[in-house]
Design brief:
The complex is a heterotrimer of chains A (394), B (340) and C (156). Chain A is built from 16 helices and eight strands. Chain A is mostly helical and 394 residues long. In chain A, the strands form three sheets. Chain A has a three-stranded antiparallel β-sheet with strand order 1-2-3. A three-stranded antiparallel β-sheet of chain A has the order 6-7-8. Chain A has a two-stranded antiparallel ribbon with strand order 4-5. In chain A, helix 3 runs antiparallel to helix 4 and helix 12 runs parallel beside helix 15. The radius of gyration of chain A is 22 Å and the shape is globular. Chain C has a domain of 102 residues: Alpha-Beta Plaits (2-Layer Sandwich). In chain C, 23% of the residues lie in helices and 21% in strands. The chains are: A mainly alpha (394), B mainly alpha (340), C alpha+beta (156).
């Protein structure tokens, strides 16, 4: 097998004889493999990318600025739209930050519900990766198989929160306690609906089945291995330098997971393994995510055994006013560390909200890693980083 | 019945027959791909068009394409751009001239049939290259060049695989090759056993031929010239309307033609064991088309299961594995031919 | 690595087995226009309005993150409850429009309503060919009220 270096050397030898000019190729903003509107201005020499410059901002929606004129409750509805394939997971760190500012203690049951829904969001996000990544390599069938299974997860989330993608279920001091704040007729408690645990357990069994299916379809497939093993290697030190987090970092041999390193919610009470791999190539990033689906299913199974009964929300004032101060709160999202830096001047709205979105930080490695790759590898590497453009541009 | 022997009458009949087979065949294969592909993905696929099972979906798609505006991009080479799809279509249809559907049911029983079809089937890449070059689109250009590279890499194993068959059969005429597969292979008691070449030790050659054929079709796992996740649609990016339909039909028609060639060369073609005479002319097309259907199903099955390779990996596969193996195959076949 | 190129069989064949199995499985598809999927009771499909309960307090319109609720009302003098008392003032709803072209389905309005005038209904078939028709007025919103389901039973 010829290594990329060998090919590169032979190509260099050729290009000395024939001085061919480089071609500038605009990949995106409309392109099938840019997950939306990322634009890459690539300089290519034949099929080899000599230089690449990512251009972002085509989907800038100004969430940081919008948040400066929204109340905390309204921001909760906004933030789950940042990374739309794992909506619930975006709310958790924001609400945790506001709670930290206000000094609210969250009831046990609400924390467990948050944990279950976060893990469901993680599974659904990784299933999207399981569908889109093989598609980028040309395999179309894993797409439908994974999205079919994701539907069961989304149904569970909808059953509890009322929204498939945008749950808007977290409230300061807990989770959404009831419909209607009024004291009159139809007050509906928003506690978990009957049969939820059973259906969740069933869905988790389905996840194990689909993971085995994907294993057979994709993981063991020699063509996939040829395309991904040894492609786009990110060494652990480079990953740390560029601020990669989440599965991308863990695939580079750094077993850093906020759920273990800085436990939030009730992650210290569940038993799970941090999935990590040593090589740091595309294949490892893929395998880490597949393993995380299995681990998340394991966490959810434990959680539905351990969840206590109790109130859903702590007592909070009707008008939320955060005291003066600032706080950074973070959580391990499906794509990595997701953080909010909230500055409050006192009052109903934050003075400033800085969003540390995962995909943006993960994408920062693109110019470094894409230099010298082939065009097909460019697609494979970009897909393996698993970004969502809404998360990049905010 | 001198009327039947009239050259022009026969020509029109054969043209109509080949066009009928190619176009209806292509539509059937498109439908099969839609249906098989969607069921493999646990979808349903076409359902409403035509009333039942969506059988009219390919026709409806075709009609839709006909209504679309036939765009050619600014800066494109109009003439070349316009002709490219017809070159592809012509090359595809011309292959059918030598495919024998029965002892007499053949467009032209050329003595150099195998040579002719190898020459003609590689012509379609010329159309692809024309499309890629004239589109004035960088993606198209890369796609067209990839197709050209792929052709050079894959025409060689294809030819070498066919050479082994020709050696074994001792003729280049496709009818002759089919007849050769009906000759007595060996005798048990009073039974004369004949077998298609795939059983007579050509399994390696068949595998090489099929891999090369899929590469020539530029279908997954060798669809780098199109590679929609990398090159949006490769050389097809700028095409629309009727010209796109031509490419589309051409792809599926050449699926049929290459499968028919594979069936003829390796699987015994139209021959029915133990049946001789005129009746084969009636049974032959059915037998051949069944074999074609099986091969087409495998090609579709592969397309909906596997990912695509990288261009350099394809070259490695072709030059370091398929060509040496094909040469080895020729050597083995020749030795057996001489010794036995 | 070249070994994988030469004998690419186990993984590839396994994958083909998965797709072959799927070929003969029944597709888990809801044939939508013919068969309708029933959403879960909590699904946020469309907001319905109970006009009688509304007191024109404007809380929903104020809390809405994208200001898609338009409310107008006026005060009506009502006869005093007992003779000789002061005449009561009652707010009457003139206009209550929700622009579903703007709404982001966050549910804050339903949550903040102190008089339980707003409810979520899981109905979802109200797409329009003209965006102006997505502005549902008071009467249209009241129609949805009949589709509000009973809340689901709770776990534990």
């Amino acid at each position: 097998m010829t290594t990329p270096e060998m090919i590169h050397r032979s190509e260099t030898a050729v290009s000395i004889e024939l001085q061919t000019p480089d071609m500038t190729l605009n990949i995106g903003p409309q392109h099938p493999s840019t997950h939306g509107v990322l634009r890459l201005v690539a300089n290519i020499d034949g099929e080899r990318v000599t230089d690449v410059e990512p251009v972002i901002g085509y989907m800038h929606r100004g969430y940081e600025k919008l948040s400066e004129v929204r109340t905390y409750a309204q921001i909760t509805a906004l933030v789950n739209r940042i990374d739309w394939v794992s909506g619930f997971a975006n709310e958790v760190p924001f609400i945790a930050g506001v709670e930290k500012l206000m000094g609210v203690e969250v009831p046990e049951r609400a924390q467990w519900i948050r944990l279950i829904l976060s893990e469901l969001a993680r599974i659904s996000s990784h299933l999207v990766f399981m569908s889109s990544y093989p598609l980028e390599l040309g395999a179309t069938t894993p797409l439908m198989h994974s999205l079919r299974e994701r539907e069961y997860i989304l149904e569970l989330i909808e059953e509890v929160t009322g929204g498939r993608f945008h749950p808007n279920f977290n409230r300061v001091g807990g989770v959404k306690p009831a419909y209607g704040g009024g004291s009159t007729t139809k007050k509906q408690s928003m506690d978990l609906p009957e049969g939820f645990f059973q259906r969740t357990a069933d869905a988790m069994d389905r996840m194990d089945v689909i993971c085995d299916d994907i294993d057979q379809l994709v993981t063991g497939n020699e063509l996939i291995k040829m395309r991904t093993v040894g492609v786009g290697v990110i060494p652990g030190s480079k990953a740390l330098e560029y601020g990669l987090t989440g599965p991308n970092l863990r695939a580079s041999g750094v077993a850093y997971d906020l759920r273990k390193a800085d436990p939030y919610l009730t992650y210290d009470q569940v038993d799970f393994d941090v999935a990590w791999r040593p090589e740091g190539d595309c294949y490892d990033r893929y395998v880490v995510r597949l393993e995380e689906i299995r681990q998340s299913a394991r966490i959810v199974r434990q959680a539905i055994d351990k969840i206590p009964s109790g109130p859903l929300q702590a007592k909070v004032p009707r008008v939320l006013k955060a005291p003066k101060g600032q706080v950074y709160s973070r959580a391990e999202n499906p794509k990595g560390e997701f953080g909010y830096f909230i500055v409050s001047e006192g009052g109903k709205i934050p003075y400033r909200l800085k969003i540390r979105s995962t995909s943006f930080s993960n994408l920062s490695i693109l110019p470094w890693i894409l230099k010298g790759q082939l065009v097909p590898d460019l697609v494979a590497i970009m897909g393996s980083l698993d970004f969502v453009l809404g998360d990049v541009d905010r | 019945m001198e009327f039947v022997d009239n050259f022009w009458f026969q020509l029109v009949l054969k043209l109509a027959g080949i066009l009928g087979v190619v176009l209806t065949g292509a539509l059937v294969v498109i439908y099969a791909e839609l249906k098989i592909g969607s069921h493999m993905q646990t979808r349903i696929g076409p359902y409403y068009a035509g009333g039942r099972w969506g059988w009219a979906q390919p026709l409806a798609d075709g009609l839709k394409f006909l209504q679309k505006e036939d765009l050619s991009p600014t800066g494109s080479d109009r003439t070349v751009y316009g002709f490219a799809p017809y070159v592809v279509m012509m090359a595809t249809i011309a292959v059918f001239v030598v495919v024998p559907f029965g002892p007499d049911m053949v467009g032209a029983n050329l003595d150099l049939g195998a040579f002719y079809l190898l020459a003609i089937s590689s012509l379609s890449v010329l159309g692809v290259l024309m499309a890629g070059w004239s589109s004035a689109n960088k993606y198209s250009l890369i796609g067209g060049l990839r197709a050209a590279a792929q052709l050079i890499a894959y025409e060689l194993p294809l030819v070498l695989a066919v050479v082994a068959v020709v050696i074994q059969a001792g003729t280049m005429s496709l009818n002759g090759i089919v007849d050769a597969q009906q000759q007595t292979w060996f005798t048990i008691g009073s039974f004369n056993i004949s077998a298609p070449f795939i059983i007579q030790g050509q399994i390696l050659g068949f595998a090489i031929f099929m891999i090369a054929a899929v590469a020539e079709l530029s279908r997954i796992p060798f669809d780098m010239p199109i590679a929609e996740s990398e090159l949006t649609m490769g050389y097809l990016t700028e095409y629309s309307g009727i010209r796109f339909t031509m490419f589309f039909l051409g792809e599926y028609a050449s699926m049929i033609s290459l499968s028919a060639i594979a069936a003829t060369l390796y699987l015994g073609g139209y021959a029915v064991p133990g049946v001789h005479g005129n009746i084969v002319n009636l049974l032959g097309p059915g037998v051949l088309l069944t074999k074609v259907a099986i091969l087409v199903f495998v090609i579709i099955w592969i397309r909906w299961t596997w990912p695509r390779l990288r261009e350099d990996q394809l070259q490695t596969l072709a030059w370091t594995w398929l060509i040496p193996l094909a040469l080895l195959n020729i050597a083995i076949v020749s030795i057996f031919k001489v010794v036995f | 690595m070249s070994k994988n190129v030469a004998f690419p069989f186990p993984g590839l064949v396994k994958g083909m087995w998965v797709t072959l199995k799927a070929l003969f499985k029944k597709a888990p598809v809801t044939m939508y226009p013919d068969v309708q999927e029933i959403p879960v009771p909590r699904a946020r499909g469309v907001i319905s309005l109970d006009v009688d309960a509304c007191t024109v307090c404007m809380l929903c319109a104020r809390e809405c993150p994208d200001w898609c609720i338009y409310i107008e009302g006026h005060k009506e003098e009502q006869p005093p409850s007992k003779p000789g008392g002061k005449p009561r003032v009652r707010a009457t709803l003139d206009r209550f429009d929700i622009d579903y072209g703007l709404c982001m389905y966050c549910g804050i309005c339903v949550e903040v309503c102190p008089f339980d005038a707003l409810f979520w209904s899981p109905e979802y078939e109200y797409s329009e060919t003209d965006v102006i028709n997505l502005l549902h007025n008071k009467e249209r919103l009241t129609e949805w009220l009949a589709t509000v389901p009973e809340p689901p039973a709770l776990e534990r």
